[in-house]
Amino acid sequence: MRLASSFLNYARAWLPGRTTVDARERLRAMGGAALGLLITALLCRWLAGVLGHNAVWLIAPLGASAVLVFAVPASPLAQPWSVIGGNTLSALVGIACANWIPDPALAAAVAVGGAIGLMFAARCLHPPGGAAALLAVLTHTTHFSSAFFPAFTNSLLLVLAGVAYNSLTGRRYPHVQVARPPAADARFSQADIDAVLARYNQVLDISRDDLESLIQQTELESYKRRLGTLHCADIMSAQPISVEFGTPLQEAWALMHERRIKALPVTDRTRRVVGIVTQADFFRQLDLQHHEGIAGKLRDLIRATRTVMSNKPEVVGQIMTRQVRVASADRPVVELVPLFSEGGHHHIPIIDSEKRLTGMITQSDFVRALYRAVRPEM
Question: pLDDT band for position 211 (50/70/90)?
Fold first, then answer.
């Protein structure tokens, strides 16, 4: 039984995995490959007539290149330099082997191996390049000009068709890696991904930025599954302490100190949020270039001025942050993940259906909710 089970597991490893693209994407790839090859073939056939070129004007490996360019345009193996450089340099290697190695079998082996090595060195690894090198040996192509026409010309025209078609159909091509600044609270960095890829030490048919994006989206999907139907009303601190625009600074600071909180929502008389005041807003009013006497500077700031005129802020409305991010009480908690993890938010006021303040969610509330959500599976 154990032998049979092992054999079945081994046999399953030979079966292809299910594709995750829908019929529309399949038709998009099919149409693009057909159109791209048609344009390339027509132009190269015309060019062959103009140049008086009686030999091959379309190489077979271009069919494999079309699969990559139009079906997997995000692949590092399908990028313009990979296609053009991979096919052209590999053709040169194949032609050289056809000229210098008499035995076709040995020439074929050396051509494909040498093409892979050259593509690695030139950073243009492209699977059809191996076929281009092999084709040059099998057809005993000895003229190095064949690497320019048809190999280079075919590849260039196919890439240009790919740029136009993929862009028109909503696919980024060339698929340039986007350098994103690391978030302050990011769970992993680009250096972490690089370290894992270095240990993996194999060619991946996916760019690093796509890999990073997929990991982040997978984490978000996991949070959605674990948090389920949890809403902001379920984890918020209800009836939070708030202040108004005209609340004196001394009163607001005393509330934050007594209740051990770092932020106070600012509301109008109808309890609608007009801003938020944090400890950072207070310290922003101080001269922090000189650290001496900060406590005294803070006391001077919050102390009420007894005269009619004042050269410093006196009430909360003068120092509060006016652009404040709020969330409704019935909003799913999982939608707050980007706000806390990447948006730099620490406190989010929660409003009811009438847009009145009804609660407050802090980073601590959010982390506690995540912990409770994942704890059953730990």
Answer: confident
